[in-house]
Amino acid sequence: MKTGVLLFNLGGPETLADVKPFLYNLFSDPEIIRIKFTPLRKTVAFMIATLRKKKSSGYYAQIGGGSPLRRLTEEQARSLQDELRRRGHDAETFVGMITWRPFFDETLAQIEKSKVERLVVLPLFPHFSVTTTGSGFSLLRCLIEKYPRVKSLKTEWIKTWKDHPSYIEAFALSIERELKKFANPQKAHLLFSAHSIPESYVKNGDPYLDETKQTVELIMDRLGRKNTYQLSFQSKIGPVKWLDPFTNDVIIDLGKRGVHDVLVIPISFVSEHIETLYELDILYKHVAEDAGVKNFRRVPALNSDPAFISALADLVERALKAG
Hints:
By secondary structure, this protein is of the alpha/beta class.
């Protein structure tokens, strides 16, 4: 049977002109702004997008004028397709985004016209949260109703892969490569930085925090627990209480404690985008310098690393066997 694989991510503005409409789409999501009355939620989203446009555009300007997320996701899709075909699968991959192009409608229209006979939906979020995978699943299930052939396909939904051995191995290998660049690798403090979410979501049952912690512990097991480490959170938006400690504060504290070697691991990000290229590489690098952290390095996002692509292929094969 011909297998279709739909990879999806959040999306990101590709030009500075895209920033405001991207922000509007982002904050229109009912899982991001929890206002049930849609017209009011969209009004609030428009206000936030208008207020944040200038600041956000400044960030994107510093990383080349737009997000590379679409390009990188399409590269991942092509690499995954090649790997699945190398393993003997008749496979075709598709890319869709929640808040920016290519939107799910565009992607589902492609699948509708394709010859795939079954479908695997693969979110590029290792850890489940209603704000990411949950939001994407809800939107997809709603939109699929408009596409009769897609609706009729046997579809496997990969909900989470926080503990998949191949994913853990891919990240561990990447960390080991960066640790070798320190004069004394075992003295480097490993700082796992994940995207934060509102604390109330976790209290209401969102498994994101527990799943992220589980990934960190599995990676440390694989690395032999030779280094000190901790988990912190970044990218807080708005006045409500979010998961902490914040990465910014942890870096400052490490400097005060005389820790000079810090390796940051973007544990919840599988592709380079604004949170890695600006927040970690520019903003937090300055914070580290000011705090006295002399050797501040970052593990690259997995992107199309062969070990990671192999992990994605393993996930697809596991889903096919389960179905």
